[in-house]
Specification:
Length: 204
Amino acid sequence: MKSNRYMHKSLKLKCMGVLSLFLMLAGCSLKEAPPLNIYTLMPPKAEAFAQSPYRNKVLKVSFPLSIREPLSYKMTYSYSMHERGYYQNSQWSNSIGKLIQGNLIQTLQKSRLYKAVLPFQSSVPEDMRLESVVYDLCHYIRGNDSYAVVSIEFALVDMRSGKLIKSRRFTYKEPTPTVDAAGYAAATNRVMDRLSLDLLEWIR
């Protein structure tokens, strides 16, 4: 009986020791985990045009396609020609594809070039459609140089005839104020402002 009590006490002490070690490790991992930084694309700058040949047309904006990485929450960086990665503790506030689509819709709505500008998911019949393909969207770090690259091709399609009206690829390279995700997000927002204005001039 005495031996059993000693064995029970020893087992209890071992269990308490394992539990204490687990809690210590868990506490350390929680303390070391850095906070997640969230970035977004700000509303674009755009003004209304007094006249437009499309004023009685309905335009739908398709969700962008990508020929490289999926258009997700992840923020991409590159240190060399053959290497690309994702920031671990920083991300976009939504899928970058949805953020781009939302910015395009807001830009075109503000311009009043069209009777209505709607997302592709809308059930309303459209006269025209704006399609886009993202060729590059990344933070490049090359030695002392740090810059955001945005390269998107647009196609304006007449949905009544099914014919391509016109297409153009826009490419921008913008220096980042800091060599991190925050600097990349700031530079990307500056690019999207420029892209919004250039896109409107091209469409009209």
